[in-house]
Amino acid sequence: MAASRPLVSVYDEKGQSTGKSVLLPAVFRAPIRTDIVNFVHDQMRRNKRQAHAVSTKAGEQTSAESWGTGRAVARIPRVRGGGTHRSGQGAFGNMCRGGRMYAPLKVWRKWHRKINLKQRRYALVSAIAASGVPSLVLAKGHSIETVPEIPLVLSDKIQDLKKTKEAVALLRKVGAWSDILKVYASKHTRAGKGKMRNRRTVMKRGPVVIYDKDNGVKKAFRNIPGVSLLCVERLNLLRLAPGGHVGRFVIWTESAFKKLDSLYGTWSKKSQLKADFNLPQPMMTNSDLGRLLKAFEIQSVLRAPIKRQARRKIKKNPLKNISLMSRLNPYAAVQKRATLLKSLKGRRTGTTAETKVAARKLRTHESIRAKRLSGVNLVKKTKTQKVGSTTTKTTTTTTKVSTKSS
Amino acid sequence: MTSNEKIPIPKMNRSRWGHPLVFIASIIGLAGSSAVYYAQIRARQKARNTFLEQSFYKEALELTQGYKPITEKLVEPIQPLQVDTTSKFNILSPLGAQKMQHDDVIWSVLNGQFCSYKQQKSKTQIFCANEYNLTGLCDRRSCPLANSQYATVREEKGILYLYMKVVERSHYPKKQWEKVKLHESYIRALKQINEHLIYWPRFVRHKCKQRLTKLTQYIIRTRRLMLKKTAKQELVPIKKKAERRETRHEEKAFVAANIDRAIENELLDRLKKGTYGDTYTFPVNAISLDEEDDESESEDEKEEEEEGENEQESEEEVEYVEDFDESDAEDMEDMGDDDIDEELIKALPLSKKRPLEIEYESVEIPVRGAERAGIIYCYATRNSPDDEWHVDKLEFKASNQPERYLFYDRELRRKSK
């Protein structure tokens, strides 16, 4: 197991790597459950609230009574008496001027939340794990492009820093100063009433410095805007995942980093400092789904994919569908072709006058022939001859010879 | 294989290759072991899908051959035990030993929870503000954060660079991006990209080339524009509000300046001082500098009175501008005083008839609140010493706008009234 955990190199105050390296604590391998972090953060945030309420008497200190119906006024309670503007005005309702509000705030509202210990620990562990992934830290908005390594571990000499000047110099050397410049740039006046409630300016969060023993670190770093200080043994989710979003930029001291294993345990070994706690088990040991599905071990067990599924065939009518007919009776095609050719025999498909006449002639010939064959009396019409005023029509009849039509 | 190359040794289950050493040995190329290895493969091939086997083998080859070492770029060597990158090298691992950086996990966090680079300004398209993004869209494939192996083409001062990022350097943000300068020639640059991204995913390679194309076109366009005349001029926008404000200020300042009164005072001052010497023959005591006392004013010297304007009580510190026009040298009579006070005598463009005794004066009179307002130049003439001074032209030059002049002809104003 140890072989799969990398070594993290320790850096000194000048930003150079000391030769030393620490084994990555198992916490950084814990599953990153942003949903748990969000929930726990949300609950935890409520715990710092102070009770507030509206006065119980507010809006109720009148002896107003409704005038009832019949007075051409709305039926809300109105203030008694006279001689003042106030008399006759509506009272008591949340809609009335000077009335009590809707659902007056009470102090016995549930201000704080209990959160399960396991959940709290899970969230914390996820937040720590996320702080070790550079992409998540970048996505959170920290500028860590100049930082030599993530997770950033500095030597224990930092815990002995006394002057803010030294602290600033350290941050500069280590490449964390650009993040603090971002904090400076983000300072602005708060929107809302907080302005007049001693919460005038707002700014971003910068890096957290997590130490083991405070020999002056706190005082050295606390005046730098954006920087938070935390002791390893008392890590705060509200500082590690501000806003409920994971991935704050963390600067560890060496001893703090080393303590993480004993604080949170590795999977094979329980935590020494926390009662009955071990790191949460992940749902999937290997969550690279894309690669998993392509893996030989899985692919070999799967059946072949069905690329073309056989669907229900629609029954087609052979009498209408010639291709189907040919499949059943190959001679049908021949027959059909013959009839077609016959019908087209000698037919011209031109549109000029001659062709039209010719086509007509052909048709008449055909029809005459057909009629003859079928045994119909044909009466041939000839031109009418005008002899003076009388017209004589000469008609010739041809009696058909009864022959059987083929 | 050079010593620099780091060969990631994947963890394997026994069932697959038999002894893990077989696989390693095959990589190294030991003859006997490869025979064993091949025998095993053939056995497997009978039972299983050959395609998949080959793909795995191919990938194994890729790891060793197509792998481009980048240690020469690093200051420190990569930690030797850092085997756990994405499961590209490690398919199934024992329980609990999870990798730190899984692209899928990262993407689920960024997509679902929060990413500071995500820009969703429209309902249809989500953009990514990350400077290394290939397409500019917030996408599973284009996200530089969620893809541990990524490349981009970026332009810096007209030069194109190929940036590459690999898993091995994912925990060293400072050294994460490898920067390769691309060739100036487009075709060669394309070849370079092909070379550097040879076994990379097709998407990245293709998009890099597309980006290269677009950027080269952009550079050509920029160069062409720079050669144009308009490129050398710096365009400054006219701010309407500011302009409106300034003109109004000027007008007000002008009115407040009381130029006439200032001229009057100045000329009387000069007269009193004796700068004109004997040119003007009238008793000095008769002339009083008190504006309100009209009786004391000499008839000869009648200045233009203000019509009910406020008196200017500020001290006039007149500055003389040394702008001496050569062509009018003959016309000037009183040149002797130049050494004493530097008088400004300027030729008037308006009146060209100049009898000998005409004096031209152009006085620089600072306006009240001079720092803000400016200076008024007054051009005055008179036909004879007995005549009145006639102000021909007044020029107001605001101090905040050195190029602008506001002209004010008193006569016209008078006429309009």
Question: Could you characterize what this model shows?
Answer:
The complex is a heterodimer of chains A (406) and B (417). Chain A has 406 residues and is α/β, with parallel strands linked by helices. Among the domains of chain A are: 7-48 and 114-282, Ribosomal Protein L4, Chain: A (3-Layer(aba) Sandwich); 50-110, no CATH class. Chain A has 13 helices and 14 strands. Chain A has helices spanning 34-45, 117-131, 134-140, 164-174, 177-185, 217-221, 237-240, 254-264, 289-294, 296-299, 322-328, 330-344, 353-374; strands at residues 7-11, 17-23, 65-66, 77-78, 152-154, 188-189, 201-202, 208-211, 228-231, 250-253, 378-381, 385-387, 390-392, 395-398. In chain A, the strands form five sheets. In chain A, strands 2-1-5-10-8-9 form a six-stranded mixed sheet. The radius of gyration of chain A is 48 Å and the shape is flat. Chain A starts with 6 loop residues before the first strand and ends in an 8-residue tail after the last strand. The model of chain A is unreliable at 385-406 (pLDDT under 50). Chain B has 417 residues and is of the alpha+beta class. Among the domains of chain B are: 148-225, no CATH class; 356-415, Pantoate--beta-alanine Ligase, Chain: A,domain 2 (2-Layer Sandwich). Helices cover 33% and strands 12% of the residues of chain B. Chain B has eleven helices and nine strands. In chain B, helix 2 (20-28) crosses helix 3 (31-47) and helix 6 (186-196) runs antiparallel to helix 7. Chain B is rod-shaped. In chain B, 21% of the residues are buried. At the A-B interface, helix 3, helix 9 and helix 10 of A face helix 4 and helix 5 of B.
